[in-house]
Amino acid sequence: MFLSLAYKSLLNRKGSGLLTVLALTVSIFVLLGVEHIRHQAKDSFGNTVSGVDLIVGARTGSLNLLLYSVFRMGSPTNNISWDSYQTIASGKNIAWAVPIALGDSYQSYRVMGTTQDYFRHFSYGNKRKLQFAGGKPFQNVFDVVLGSEVAKQLAHTLGDKVVLAHGVASTSFSLHDDRPFQVVGILAPTGTPVDQTVHVSLQGIEAIHVGWQQGVKMPGGTVSAEQLADMELQPKTITAFMLGLTSKIATFRVQREINNYNNEPLMAILPGVALSELWQMMAMFENTLRLISVFILVAALLGLSAMLLASIRERKREVQLLRVIGAPPMFLFLLIELEALLISVFSLLLGASTLYLSLAIVGDVLASNFGLHISTNILSESNVYLMLLVIFSTIVAAAIPSLDAYRSAQLK
Fold this sequence. Notes:
It contains 15 helices and 17 strands. The protein is α+β, with helices and mostly antiparallel strands. It has two domains: 2-45 and 282-411, no CATH class; 54-269, no CATH class. The chain is elongated and about 100 Å long.
């Protein structure tokens, strides 16, 4: 009876009640959405690279090394000699090593020189290996493998010709147009920087720079394909390399040995630790979003309180009737609180359902365009606590109109 009375009372004021439900639904949608996407984005960010024990580059800051080696952002302070790479890669605790050479671009996308081991050992997410949507890894010097986003945005298919540019500027006039590459593979989407990378062999990087000095093509430096075939296209330097170790126990020992390497200044970082440090730099932006969503919720709850307070003054005859049939003042207090809770619970269900449907619809778009793998399971521990907080806040916000109804009943 008590619940039925509260429900029918809300139906009698369905206009104002509906607007309050919509306002509260929007605020709950934003609050739960920000919290859910925050956690999912953090997990997705941390899964950009997986299964790599150490990343080695020239001595610099750990974040700078992470940015240019994993996210293809920025530039290295220096390169690493090929001899140092081979010495470290042949260590007894090293299971595999993948070299990386950066410096060129293709229509604003970064070009990365590497070996076929990259496609065998590099992983992302929960140790998910790279898959090919079409084609195969590069075999010849002038083969190229495109990330899914590169192929999609530039409308490339297998067999297309690609002309790389020297440097990483958005517009470059130093083109390697005398040595075009052929697309032999297109990677499946990963939601990581791999999607926006152009992959070629280390030998391909060396081949297109034969006859170049200081970033400039020298006159008369044209070399035929036959001459290139006879050359030993082994790089003298690389940008960085990734290491997989035979034992996780040896991670810190190998890291210390690399950091103390005598032949040249090197630095080894744990990608997971560096990713956590990078995410912490975004804490201010993260907290700002949470604060805005809380303010939206507070505004909606104040609107709920104002609606109930106004309804009390419009329900004097109802209050009088309830008092006549023997309803005590506390009954009216609990009735208003129950009405507020019904609005809150309905708004929670509606907001959570809307968020679930939205994530189900735009999940693939977020993954392909922004690299965010957002789960539709919104019932995380933090979101459950937020739902309980919303209910508690509703009780507090409804206290003022409930007390007003209580005092009005005492005066009758």
